[in-house]
TrEMBL record:
One of its GO terms (molecular function) is adenylate cyclase activity. Keywords: Kinase, Membrane, Transferase, Transmembrane, Transmembrane helix. It comes from the Bacteria. Residues 606-730 form the Guanylate cyclase domain. Gene3D superfamilies: 3.30.450.40, Nucleotide cyclase, PAS domain. This is Histidine kinase. Pfam families: GAF, Guanylate_cyc, MCP-like_PDC_1. The chain crosses the membrane at residues 20-43, 349-367. GO terms for cellular component: guanylate cyclase complex, soluble. It comes from Acetobacter orientalis.
Length: 778
């Protein structure tokens, strides 16, 4: 062999590693670096643009704020500056011409300045003069406070804007005194301009604020000149101001009350024309409310925040020439000022995202290709492993001794099914010969690693499940509770262990379906068709033998019962044989029973048969033969179980054990075993006669009293609540062939037998209790 043909395994391994490194690791690493670079550049560009947008927005909003502040200041200035001009004119003229100067100044200002509403002039003697616009906003009204006949009246003179008098009128002034008005009183001890709080005129829908100034007249009297300025015009101005594309402006005082702004009259009406209630509302103006909160915390200046997934910018600034606590508040979406820049940055980020997505797709395709190869290898290895496991399971099943003998439990079937199918639980069920019930031969819980069996379910309890199994086709239900075929099975069998999915495989016999395999929460069930078919065939052979045994030789049922009762029967072996006397099967001297007495723990089994309906002598003889066969079998089972007595009363059989002065611990076990054996035997006899089960059974355990009654030959009889309740259990059983027991029986036997809860029942003198169905042995 040449040296070129020699293969070095280490070299092959190095080549494989190098191939993976070159074809997968390095391209993937380069791709990740490219993605990170694109993501970093895109994010950095977005953040830089975002910061520029924020700065630009603040600058533009600041410019708009300066413009609006100047406009608002110009709007208010005539009220403040006019007070200074008017007071300077009036204080240097004689008293006789003060009113003329006042009217001349007021008329000129009302004609030229639309936001001014009226002017007041009052002195410390109570004189009062007023000039104002007409109610319709046109012409002028001049009012003086006069005293006539000891009463104060307002005398009104009406003039056109050109100074032509067009009428006059008087009305009662009542106790009006200008010196008590807020615009007069707030100037006390001050020579500065003072502003009143805004107030509303509901009739004229005017929102007015008054500025006033105190000064001395030429005669030494103190005068106050006041100017009323309408804030409606200011609100109209703010309504038409565009702050960006959709921003707004509003004027508030330090307490959050609205002075001017959009929809002022609607807010005034909602507040009941009370200015103190015109507070900024977070529900109707959430952006302004957030901006005002920021002002109260951080004072004047800009603020930015996010509201409802949208960025907003607000700016708060003081208003010159206004009341000291007025705040101008502007708000606008960030996108109104620099939407183009934001859109550009978002597009850049989107382009980066597109590039990243394409890169990720390429990386995913590359990884997918590599993983597909690895997945194929894993599938091949998994298939090989599954074949190995199935082969080992088949070998283990085949190596099980007495595999087809129904007397052998053969737990290997359910164990191997559960392991291979990864099932929570696997079970084998068989139908009774007449199909009226289904019994669990073996159930293996893989999580608990425990076997159980003997559960019995009647057809009336699971009619849909019985029909689905008898169709002979396998079926599955991912959610057994939602499938009509398995809903009853889930409620009665699966719910106790918390399983949800179920796979059902019918077991076929010579004459049809004789049983079924059930897998609960089996992940691998769809991949085990051949193995499940094999186990179903083995189970079919076992069940066919067991099915035939129960159908043909019901007497054989006592064999396994005697084996299971070995320990209990040993304890009862010293009891004398049961004696028979006419219609009573009894043992009056058994168990040291010499006379009547009270027995602390008696087990009483009542079997109730339906009354037969016969027509003719031949049919009557057939019924009597059937009854005789059943009675013979009951006597045989009673003797084998060492029961104390079996009493025949019409269509009832009353079996009892434990009629001793001291408690017999085996009495209840012997009666329970006898009940199970009697049930199987009676069902077999009735099925052989082509009859439906016509009997029910009831079992109770407790104190009773009894004794021999009558002349010779005396017979033994038993009385007490235990006998009555046992008969009540038999009468109240739901289905034919059912053994219904009390809670006292259940509490003693629950470790040895399987029970199903039946619900509550009521017994006279006893009250409510719980009933159970004795299903099978554990």
């Amino acid at each position: 062999m040449s040296s070129e043909e020699i293969v070095d395994p280490t070299l092959q391994h190095d080549v494989s590693v190098r191939r993976v490194l070159i074809h997968l690791v390095l391209p993937l690493f380069a791709l990740i670096l490219g993605i990170l670079a694109v993501a970093f550049i895109g994010l950095h560009s977005y953040r830089t643009t975002r910061a520029g947008v924020k700065a630009l927005t603040h600058e533009l909003l600041g410019a708009v704020q300066h413009y609006i502040a100047q406009e608002v200041s110009d709007y208010i200035m005539p009220a403040a500056a006019g007070n200074i001009v008017a007071s300077g004119m009036i204080e240097h003229v004689p008293v006789a011409v003060q009113d003329k100067v006042f009217y001349s100044y007021g008329a000129a200002m009302l004609r030229s300045v639309p936001q001014l509403q009226s002017f007041y002039l009052a002195d410390d003697s109570g004189h009062f003069t007023l000039i104002t616009r007409g109610k319709d906003g046109k012409n002028q009204e001049r009012t003086t406070l006069q005293e006539r006949g000891g009463h104060k009246v307002f005398h009104h003179d009406y003039f056109t804007d050109d100074g032509v008098k067009i009428g006059e009128a008087d009305d009662d002034a009542k106790d009006y005194d200008p010196r008590n008005r807020p615009w007069y009183k707030n100037t006390e001890n001050s020579t500065d301009i003072k502003w009143t709080q805004p107030y509303l005129f509901a009739t004229s829908h005017q929102f007015v604020m008054t500025s006033s100034l105190r000064f001395k007249g030429i005669d030494g009297h103190t005068l106050v000149f006041a100017t009323n300025i309408s804030l409606n015009e200011l609100s109209a101005f703010l309504d038409h101001i565009k702050v960006g594309k959709s921003g707004n402006a509003i004027i508030l005082d330090s307490k959050g009350r609205v002075m001017a702004g959009r929809h002022l009259m609607q807010q005034a009406e909602a507040a009941g024309w009370d200015p103190n209630k015109m507070i900024i509302n977070p529900k109707t103006h959430p952006v302004f409310a957030r901006g005002f909160d920021h002002y109260r915390v951080h004072n004047f200046g800009p603020a930015s925040f996010e509201l409802n997934n949208k960025r907003y910018v607000t700016i708060a600034s003081p208003l010159p020439n206004s009341s000291e606590d007025w705040v101008l508040l502007l708000s606008a979406p960030e996108s109104d000022f620099a939407g183009f820049a934001k859109q550009s940055s978002q597009q850049s980020l989107q382009f980066a995202g597109v590039i990243i997505v394409f890169s990720l797709v390429l990386a995913a395709l590359l990884i997918r290709q590599v993983r597909r190869s690895e997945r194929s290898d894993r599938k091949l290895r998994a298939q090989a492993s599954q074949i190995t496991r199935e082969t080992a399971a088949v070998q283990q099943v085949a190596a099980t001794p007495h595999l087809f003998d129904p007397a052998n439990d053969s737990l290997v079937l359910t164990e191997q099914l559960a392991h291979l199918a990864s099932a929570h639980r696997a079970s084998v069920w068989r139908f009774l010969h007449d199909g009226s019930a289904i019994i669990c031969e073996d159930s293996y819980d893989q999580k608990q690693d425990t076997h159980s069996g003997g559960f019995e379910m009647s057809r009336s309890e699971m009619e849909d499940f019985f029909k689905a199994v008898e169709e002979g086709e396998a079926f599955t239900a991912q959610n057994a509770a939602a499938d009509t075929r398995t809903a009853q099975f889930e409620r009665l069998v699966m719910r106790e262990v918390g399983t949800h999915g179920v796979a059902v495989y019918p077991v076929h016999g010579a004459n049809g379906v004789i049983g079924t395999l059930v897998l609960e929460d089996a992940a691998m069930a769809p991949h085990l068709l051949y193995f499940v078919d094999l186990i179903a065939s083995v189970a079919g052979m076992r069940l066919a033998s067991l099915y035939g045994a129960h159908t043909d030789t019901p007497e054989g049922a006592s064999i396994s019962t005697a084996d299971k009762l070995h320990e209990a029967l040993q304890q009862a072996a010293s009891l004398p044989a049961t004696k028979f006397d006419n219609m009573l099967m009894r043992a009056p001297q058994t168990g040291a029973v010499q006379s009547s007495g009270i027995y602390p723990a008696v087990a009483v089994l009542v079997i109730t048969f339906s009354d037969p309906v016969v027509d003719g002598g031949t049919e009557t003889q057939g019924v009597l033969d059937l009854i005789n066969r059943i009675a013979t079998e009951v006597q045989r089972i009673a003797i084998e179980s060492h029961l104390f007595a079996v009493e025949v009363a019409g269509h009832r059989l009353i079996c009892m054990a434990g009629c001793t002065e001291h408690e017999d611990p085996t009495a209840l076990i012997r009666v329970a075993e006898a009940a199970l054996t009697m049930r199987e035997t009676c069902m077999g006899i009735l099925a052989a006669a082509n009859l439906e089960p016509v009997f029910t059974m009831g079992l109770d355990y407790g104190a009773a009293f009894g004794g021999a009654v009558g002349a010779e030959p005396q017979v033994f009889n038993l009385w007490g609540q235990t006998v009555s309740v046992a008969e009540l259990m038999a009468q109240g059983a739901a289905d034919a062939g059912t053994i219904q027991v009390t809670e006292r029986v259940y509490s003693v036997l629950r470790d040895r037998y399987l029970f199903r809860s039946r619900g509550a029942f009521f017994a006279p003198h006893l009250g409510l209790g719980r009933a159970y169905v004795l299903a099978a042995r554990r």
